[in-house]
Amino acid sequence: MAFMRQGAASMMKDGSQFVDEPILKNIEACRELAKITRSSMGPYGLCKMVINHLNKLFVTHDAATILRELEVEHPAAKLLAMAAAAMQEEVGDGTNLVVTLGGELLSLAEGLVRMGLHPSDIIEGYKKAGNKALEVLSTLACGTVDDVLLRESVIPVLRTAIASKQYGYETFLAELVADACINACPSNPKNFNVDNVRVAKLDGESVLSSRLVRGFVIGRNAEGAVKHVKKAKVAVYGCAVDIPSTETKGTALIESAEDLISYSKKEEDVMEELISNIAKSGCNVIVSSSNYGDLAIHFLNRYNIMAVKISSKFEMRRLCAAVGARTLARLDVPTLEDLGACDTCDVSEVGSKNIVSFAQEKDDSKLSTIVIRGATQNVLDDVERAIDDGINVFKALTKDKRVVAGAGAVEMELQKILTTFAESNRGLDQYAIRKFASSFEVVARTLAEVSGFNGTDVVTQLEADHQAGHPYNGVNVEDGKSINAVEAGIIDPLATKFWGIKLAMEVALTILQVDQIIVAKQAGGPKPRADQARDEE
């Protein structure tokens, strides 16, 4: 019986678990998680093949996707994964930085714990070092993006973010993303919405065949015979385009062939009158979320009106935003305020698939769509993640225009500054500050190692360069030597580094503050099949 046990276990139900002195075990779990994503950092980062619980295959080196599909169970490692998810929500890029830096902070703290340093001293030192790093970071900005609507200003920053996912295609994709974001950006860039840049994935050809459509793209064919419309006036209906049905059930008594013909003729007259009135309103494209009747298609073709079906209500909303239309609940004649407009509405064949494009010729459409091409579905998914990172970096620049040197340069400069800061502290926390400073080396070391070079030699060279007064020197992944990142155009948004350091520090402090893990008895109910099989074995 539970109350006959001693200690904290006497308060809990049978089956509860207690883990004392869990700091080293938590650090080990986080270090192993960081080891998984760390090798995926940088242009030459290695991909992971993840098969989730639904047997879906992912081949990617996007840390956010890897962590989301891994389903981490260890509570400390789960905290690290949650910090990465918070980074994805806040900035949309830099998740690997959070996991790698957080894992390195905890890994270096392990040495201090084994030396006998109390966790409170480590926590105090980490807090001081983290606050100092965030304070110094703003002074390390190498410039600003003064106008995010200027294509040449944003492309270098987007190229750096995309290169970590799609090295070799970064210039081409950065130009696509820059054009798409600038096209969909409102007059006040701070109101930029990432949802206004959409992606349509069509397998076949190569990534270099991807293109931008200033407007909306739906991956299906038109319903009728009309495939091309210029100066389109678009009416959007949330109902079926068919013969209206009565609200109550009724029975039509037909006694002869003449009655049947007149009944059918009446239906035809009703539908023709409705379609002709819609045509008179100026509408030449109809979009419906439901089905089109055969009779409706016949008259739409006769009046040269294009018919498109979009089943998803989210896509319907995006189309309405793109063309400026209102969704009508009934099959009525639209007013001028209800109609949307676009320059062209075309059906085009891409590979073996037909797509419908609602495009604007000018650079002032409210929606942009990037049509991605690629060999396999996994390639398309990975390119989409790279484009998503680029779009989120553009949004980060609309909030904070400052940029810092990439390629591990800003981290090595922070390492130098914090090492000097540690020497000015006389307490025990100076050891923790020194370890915090050393943790920044992991970025440059990882970039070198995944590129096939000796990480220690590269870090040593960079330390010498930064001590000699070269704050923008980072890792050249091509030859393993140092390179001026700013001159090479390798720059990152300051916001990405700020939130990466802040979240990594906070998750490390949270895990170091834990001195006991208490696991309550799991709720009743049937066990998962995997657990049953394990018990039977």
TrEMBL record:
User: Among its keywords, does the record have Glycosyltransferase?
Assistant: no
GO CC annotation: cytoplasm
Task: Give the matching SUPFAM superfamilies.
Answer: GroEL apical domain-like (SSF52029), GroEL equatorial domain-like (SSF48592), GroEL-intermediate domain like (SSF54849)
CDD domains linked to this entry: TCP1_theta
> What molecular functions are annotated in GO for this chain?
ATP binding; ATP hydrolysis activity; ATP-dependent protein folding chaperone; unfolded protein binding
* Family matches, as InterPro entries: Chap_CCT_theta, Chaperone_TCP-1, Chaperonin_TCP-1_CS, Cpn60/GroEL/TCP-1, GroEL-like_apical_dom_sf, GROEL-like_equatorial_sf, TCP-1-like_intermed_sf
**Which compartment or compartments is the protein found in?**
Cytoplasm
Q: What is this protein called?
A: CCT-theta
Keyword Cytoplasm assigned = yes
Q: Which organism is it from?
A: Bodo saltans
Record keywords:
ATP-binding, Chaperone, Cytoplasm, Nucleotide-binding, Stress response, Transit peptide
Belongs to which family?
Belongs to the TCP-1 chaperonin family.
